[in-house]
Amino acid sequence: MTKQLIFGHKSPDTDTICSAIVYADLKKQLGYEVEPVRLGELNGETSYALDYFNQEAPRFVETVANETGEVILVDHNERQQSVDDIDEVEVKEVIDHHRIANFETKSPLYYRAEPVGCTATILNKMYKENGVEVSETMAGLMVSSIISDSLLFKSPTCTAEDEKAAEELAAKARIDLNEYGLDMLKAGTDISGKSAEELISLDAKAFDMGEANVRIAQVNTVDTNEVLSRKEELEGAMQKEIDDNGYDLFVLLITDILDSDSTALTVGDKQEAVEKAFDVKLEDNKAVLKDVVSRKKQVVPPLNKVLG
Amino acid sequence: MTKQLIFGHKSPDTDTICSAIVYADLKKQLGYEVEPVRLGELNGETSYALDYFNQEAPRFVETVANETGEVILVDHNERQQSVDDIDEVEVKEVIDHHRIANFETKSPLYYRAEPVGCTATILNKMYKENGVEVSETMAGLMVSSIISDSLLFKSPTCTAEDEKAAEELAAKARIDLNEYGLDMLKAGTDISGKSAEELISLDAKAFDMGEANVRIAQVNTVDTNEVLSRKEELEGAMQKEIDDNGYDLFVLLITDILDSDSTALTVGDKQEAVEKAFDVKLEDNKAVLKDVVSRKKQVVPPLNKVLG
Questions:
Q1: Nearest to B99 among A100, A102, A107 (CB)
Q2: Nearest CA among B219, B214, B297 for reference residue B254
C-alpha cells in the first residue's frame, strides 16, 4: 500500500492543520497508511490548540511528489491553494467545505464536500458513519477548527450543524466552549513581534472585481486600538503591496472577535468603493463595519457589486 | 423553498435514471421539494427495470433554467454531459462515482463522489446515514443500477461494496440477482428496430483529452456479429456525428455481456490512438479488446494517456 499524505491549504489556519491530523487519525484506524503534513507555518491560534491538546504539529513539506504518488486534500481543492507539485500526484480523496474550482482528476475519487462552516464538522460525521470512536484529543482538535472557522459561531458561514457538532465535541474534549474558544482566538491575536508586512499578509486574498484588482487581508484582534496604533506603518506596507502588484484597492479588515465588528483600513485608488459598498464614510482611511466578520460572505459580495 | 430538479447525464443509462428517481425519493422523505427528470430517451434495459418495479419514468426536459434556479446532479458532473443550460442554474448537490472535470461552482455545495461502481451504491448508504427505510421499489431500482453498471459484477469498476449492496437490495426487492440481472441486461441488447444513429447515441459520452475531443459510445450485446453485420451503417452514422460535432475520434464499444470482451469500432482522425492505447492493430476499423467492458476504467484512462 502506498503511503498517502494528507494536507490542507497554504497559509494554513486551524481547520486546515487540525483536519489533516484528524482525518489521518480516522484513516489509520480504518487500516490505511497515511501521514498528515502542512504547507506552511502555524499561526498563533493553531499553536495554542495543538499545545492545549498535546498534539504534535504535522511535518512541513514544500513538495510531495518526491515521497508519494497519492495524496488526500482537506479544507481546499483549488490548485493554486495547494502544494506546488499537486499536478504530479494523484488526488485520491478530498474532504472540503468550499466551492469547487480549478480542480480536475483523471480517475474517480472520494470527494466529500458539504456546505457547512468547517471541514471538521464533516470529519466528525465520518467517524460516526464508519463506527469509529472519537478520542478526547481528536475531539479537541475538531472543536478548535469549528471555533476558528466560525469565530465562536458568530460568522454567517456557521451552520446549525457546526454548532451542534461543536457542542458534542466540546463535551468529549472536556472543555468549556466559550472559555476555551475565547482563549484560543485570543492566542491568534498577538501582534507583538509581527511586522506590518506580516500582519497584512498572514490571511490575505486577491480578487478580480470587474476591472479592479482588490486585495483583502484580515487580522483578528481583541483590541482594535492596538492594531490601529500601527496605522501609518500598516498603510505604508499596504501602499507598497499596491505599488508592487498593481492592486486598485487594499482593504485590511481588523476584526474584533469580542464585539464581532470589523474596522476597515483602506489604501488605493478605489477607496470610495468601500464607502458605497457599506454605506459608510471613510475618515482618515478607515471606517467601522458593524457586524461584519466574514470576508467571504460579507465583504467580497458587496464590494463586487460596486466594482464588478 | 425552490423546487430542485434532479437529473443524470445525457444519453441516460439505468444508473442515471434510477439514481435520479431514488435520490428524489430520499430527498422528499427528508422534507425537500424535488423532482427527478431525464435528459434523453430510456434505453430498453432501463425500461425493463422501470416496468418490472412499476415505476414511472421521470419527465423529459431539454432545459432547466426555465423552471428552476437550483439543480442536483447524479451520476455525472462534467458540463458537456449535463443539461445544455447548466451554466444558468446553481448546482446545489452532486452524487457521483466518476472523475471530476469541467466542473466549477461559485459557492460551496454538497458534493459526494465515491470510487465505487455505481451511484446507487452511494445512495443506498445515504438512506442508512439518514435513517430512512428503503422501499421495495427503490431497492429494485438501486439493484438494477448496480447490475447495469457492473454488468452483473463482471466489470472492473465493480467493488466489494457494490456487490454487498446489490445482495442486500436484491433481498429487499425480492428478486433473484442472476435471473433478474440477465433478463434485464438482455432487454438492453435488442437492436432490432433501432437505427444506426440510435445505436451510437444510446450510451455515448464525449471527453476532452488533451487537444482531442473524443466520443465513446457503448452497446451491450449477446451477439457481437449481429451488431457488426451493420458495420457500414454504423460507421456512416459515426462519421456524420464527427462532421456535425467536430470530434477527433469516435469509438463504438460493442460489449459482449456473456464473455465480457469488447470489439472497438473506430472512425476519425485520431484512430491510431486506439492502436497505441490498447496495443492492438485495427483491421477494417475494428479490433477486439480482450476483457474490456468498462469505458470508464479500461477505455478512457489509456486513451487519455495517449491523447492527453
A1: A107
A2: B219
